[in-house]
Amino acid sequence: MNIFYHIGGYFLLMKSLFTKPEKISVYWDRTLDEIIALGIKSLGIVVIMSFFMGSVLVIQTATAIDSPLIPRYTVGFTLKQSIILEFSPTIMSLILAGKIGSNIASELGTMRVTEQIDALEIMGVNSAGYLISPKIIGLMMIFPIVVIFSMFFGFLGGGFIAYTTDLVSIEDFLFGIRVFSGDNGFMIFYALFKSIVFAFIITSVSSYFGYNARGGALEVGKASTDAVVYSSIIILFSNVLITQLLLIP
Amino acid sequence: MIEIKNISKSFNGVQILHDVSCVFETGKTNLIIGQSGSGKSVLTKCIVGLIEPDTGEVLYDGRNFLALKKKEKKEIRKEIGMLFQGSALFDSLTVVENVMFPLKMFSNMTKKEMLERANFCLERVNIIGKNDLYPAETSGGMQKRIAIARAIVMNPKYLFCDEPNSGLDPVTSILIDNLIKDLTEEYDMTTIVITHDMNSVLEIGDNIMFLNQGHNHWTGNKETILTTDNKEVNDFVYVSKFLKQIKNKIKND
C-alpha cells in the first residue's frame, strides 16, 4: 500500500507543476539559478571522476588483454563504448543522484518544516511549480552538457595513460577511439537521451521526497536518504528499459 | 471582516475542532488564545486554507473561501499577509529580497519601485541598513519584524500572526505586539493573532476568543478577560500565584 501511496503522491505532485507560472520572468531566473546550482557546480566532481575513471578503464583493459591475437586498439574501442554507453550517462547520473538528489530533498524538506513552503502558499504562489519546475527544467537542460563534459574528460584520462605509459601506444588508443565510428551518432543520441530522462528522475523523485517531508531534522534526513535510494533504483530500472527499447533491434 | 461558521476538523478520527464559530472585526486585533493543543494553529490553517476543514464556512468579507475555485482562492490569498511562528523567511534570499518577493511575483512595479516599497516597509518596522543580510545573520526579533514587513508589503486586507512573540524577550515581545496593533489600525486590516502570551492578551486584545479543547469556549476583550467568572478562562489567565493575587485585588476593589 505504501508504494502505491507514494506513486499516487508523485503523479499528483507532477500534475501540480503543469500550471501557468505567476510570472514567467521569475521562473526563468530561477531556472538559470538552478542550472548553475545543480549543473555548473557539479562540473568539478564530474571532471575529476571522469578523468580518473577513463584512466582506470584503460589500465584495466590494457592489462586484461594478454593475447597477441587481440589488437591493442581494442583498449581505445572498449573505453569509447564504456564511456559513451554507460559511464557518462548512467554511472554519472547515479553519482549525481547522490549529490543533487540529497541537496534537493534536504533543501525542500527544510523549507517544508520551517513553514517556508506554507508561506509561499499563503502568498498565492504555486509552491510546487515555483520550487520544483525550475529544478527539473534546469537539470534537463544542463545535464546533457555535463554528460558531454564527462565523455571528453573520460577520453582525456584514457589518453593520458596511453601517452604516459607503455600499456598501449597513443596511436593505437586513438585508432581504437575512431574505429567502427558508424554508430557514434546514434550512441551519442542514446547517451544524451538517457541523460535527459535521468535528469528528470533525479530532480522529480528527490523533489517529491523533500516536498512531502514532515516533522523535523530527522524526517528531512530520511527524505534525503529516500531521495537518493529511490532515484538510483528508478535510474537503474529506466536504464534497462531505455536500453531494451533503443539498442535491441 | 472574517467570519467563521461551524468549523470542525478531525485527524485520524481525533476531533480537533468542534463547530467553532466567530467573527473577526476589521481594524481590530482579534486574538485566538488557548492552551497548547487546543486547536489554535489548526483553526488558523483552516481559515487561511492550508488545511481544509471537514465542515463549516470561512467568509472573507462575505466571500465563502472554501466554496471558491482555485483561481479565486489565489486572488484572496494575495490579500492575506501572514507572520509565521518561526518567521518562515526564505533562507536563500537577503532581507530586502524577502520583503520584495511578493511584489516580484504579483506586481508590475519596476525594480526601483519595488525597492522603494520594500525599504518603506522595512523602515516602518524599524529595520534600517540590514537590506543585504541573510535571515540567518539577524536576531529572532529582527526576523519577526522582517516577516511583518514582508506580510504588509502588498497592503493586505487580512493579517494573520501565529504566536508572534514566541522565543522573544518581554521587551521585544511588547514592541512586536504594538507594531501589529499600530499596523492594524493604520492600514485598517482584519488581524488575527494566535497567542498564549498573557502580556499580548492584555496589551492588544481588542477581541479575544478562548479556544478550549477545540471549542469556542469564551469570547470577550482585554478588559472582560480579567473579570470573567468563566472557570476555564480563569484557570488559563490566573495560572500563577502573582496573577491570582492581582485578581483578588481587582475583586476587592
What is the structure about, briefly put?
The complex is a heterodimer of chains A (249) and B (253). Helix content of chain A is 84%, strand content 0%.
Write the layout of secondary structure elements.
The complex is a heterodimer of chains A (249) and B (253).
Chain A lengths: L1 H16 L6 H16 L3 H22 L9 H40 L2 H8 L3 H38 L5 H9 L5 H28 L5 H31 L2
Chain B lengths: L1 E10 L2 E11 L4 E5 L6 H9 L6 E6 L2 E2 L5 H8 L2 E4 L11 H12 L4 H14 L15 H13 L5 E5 L7 H18 L2 E6 L2 H7 L2 E6 L2 E6 L3 H4 L3 H7 L3 H12 L1
Parallel strand pairs in B: 3-8, 3-9, 6-7, 7-8
Antiparallel strand pairs in B: 1-2, 1-4, 4-5, 9-10
**Largest sheet of chain A, if any?**
none
Strand percentage of chain A? under 5%
**How far is it from the N-terminal to the C-terminal residue of chain B, by CA?**
37 Å
Overall helicity of chain A: over 70%
Question: How many helical stretches of chain B?
Answer: 10
- What summary fits the major beta sheet of chain B? 6 strands, mixed
What structural keywords apply?
heterodimer; A: 249 residues; mainly alpha; 84% helix; B: 253 residues; alpha/beta; Rossmann fold; six-stranded mixed β-sheet; four-stranded antiparallel β-sheet; globular
Task: Walk me through what this model shows.
The complex is a heterodimer of chains A (249) and B (253). Chain A contains 9 helices and no strands. Chain A has 249 residues and is an all-alpha fold. In chain A, α2 (24-39) runs parallel beside α6 and α4 (74-113) packs antiparallel against α6 (127-164). Chain A is elongated. Chain B has 253 residues and is an alpha/beta fold. The mean pLDDT of chain B is 90. The chains are: A mainly alpha (249), B alpha/beta (253). Chains A and B meet through α5 of A and α2 and α3 of B.
